[in-house]
Amino acid sequence: MIRRKHNGIRPQDIVVLLKLIVDSDTKYTQLQLAADLAISLSEVSESLERSKFSGLLSDDKQTVNRQALLDIIIYSIQYIFPVKPLGFVKGMPTAHSYTGFESQFLSEQKYVWPHAEGTAIGLEVQPLYPNQAEAAKKDEELYKILAAIDMIRLGRKREQKFGKEMVSTIILGSLV
């Protein structure tokens, strides 16, 4: 058996693990994950292997090490997957512009993931992987946690605190 060199976690690995968490009552196949996340089957397979190797996923590739994932998101996501808003584009609202969060924050500035079918114009925020907006359209809970992560990645202290609390609630709260 030929083993590939482990080159660390990639941004889409975070999203794959989050999908497993938000749909924890579903036993996923790799084919289902690929379809739900709009990524190739080989990318899903490689992602699950990287996550298993790093201790973020059980040997059966169904159980996420929630505390370890939460630690990565809370303490380092803004450093390992930083983002700087680009020019104005049409897209899906994210960070404090996400529909469920915008009432918590007064801001004239909107942030969006670029998407042709988007509902808002705002500063472009590069998602963790190219088809993230497609996956978020299919799953509101995934969309919510990804928007909260963007608050951590690009927000000020107050937004980051809110994002961290939201992510913690979703990741640890779904244990019950």
UniProtKB/TrEMBL annotation:
Source organism per entry reads: Polluticaenibacter yanchengensis
User: What name does this protein carry?
Assistant: Uncharacterized protein
Looking at the record's lineage, which domain of life comes first?
Bacteria
> Species lineage, top-down?
Bacteria, Pseudomonadati, Bacteroidota, Chitinophagia, Chitinophagales
